[in-house]
Write a structure and sequence with these properties.
Layout lengths: L2 E9 L3 E10 L3 E13 L5 E13 L1 H5 L5 E12 L3 E10 L27 E15 L2 E13 L7 E14 L9 E12 L8 E12 L6
Antiparallel strand pairs: 1-2, 2-3, 3-4, 4-5, 5-6, 6-7, 7-8, 8-9, 9-10, 10-11
Length: about 220
């Protein structure tokens, strides 16, 4: 099986422009573009714009297992950062989800985030707004409500209406033997309305996730 992948990226301190593509025989062809731009204001606040566009075409075995032969993802995020507070808004659209068909196409790449509810279903739009407050430069809390609208199935017969709220606490160790360690605890409370679904007409979620990251180098 032949696989070809190419990517290019141009960046400086305030911008990044990336293009990538891949082609795998009898599976898929995929293309992605990412743009990031940060603007510094006179009062030392910053605004950051992020946008991605993704397109995939299925081929061969993957195509035979999917109702649709292509998909697109469009997503963007705007973040306004101040010394103590950052506020952000993000949105995403997935035209066709490519789940459980054995392909290598991943459409769960948009900026809206949740521990519980899907942002990666048929014709799904997701919208999120949030705020992160810094008690200290290395200690912050975040709150980010989210809504989703889409369909459970590729035939678009079962509608999904989701809503939730994501919260998190983040801490970075800045001195001592463990300097550089990053820790977080996040919690998500959400619900979805799916009339006619085998999973139930109304689903409720509560998820908690924690993580520790420590990078080191052996010499």
């Amino acid at each position: 099986m032949l696989f070809i992948q190419q990517s290019r990226s141009w960046h400086d301190n305030n911008s990044r422009y990336s293009l990538g593509g891949s082609w795998q025989d009898d599976v898929s062809s995929q293309y992605e573009a990412i743009i990031e731009k940060k603007i510094s204001l006179e009062n030392k606040d910053t605004i950051k714009f992020e946008f991605l566009a993704f397109h995939a075409m299925l081929d061969g075995i993957s195509r035979s297992r999917s109702v649709h032969d292509n998909t697109q993802v469009y997503s963007g995020q705007i973040t306004y950062s101040m010394p103590k507070v950052s506020v952000f808004g993000s949105a995403g659209l997935v035209t066709h989800a490519m789940n459980n068909i054995g392909s290598n196409v991943d459409t769960d790449i948009g900026y809206p985030n949740s521990l519980s509810i899907d942002r990666n279903k048929e014709d799904m739009f997701s919208l999120q707004a949030g705020m992160q407050y810094f008690f200290l430069p290395n200690l912050s809390v975040m709150v980010a409500p989210l809504i989703t609208r889409g369909y459970e199935d590729p035939q678009r017969t079962i509608e999904i209406n989701g809503q939730g709220i994501l919260t998190g606490v983040f801490y970075n160790v800045t001195d001592g033997a463990l300097a550089g360690m990053k820790m977080y605890v996040a919690s998500d409370i959400a619900k979805e309305k799916r009339d006619g679904s085998k999973l139930g007409n109304e689903l409720h979620y509560w998820d908690v996730k924690a993580g520790i990251q420590y990078d080191f180098m052996l010499k």
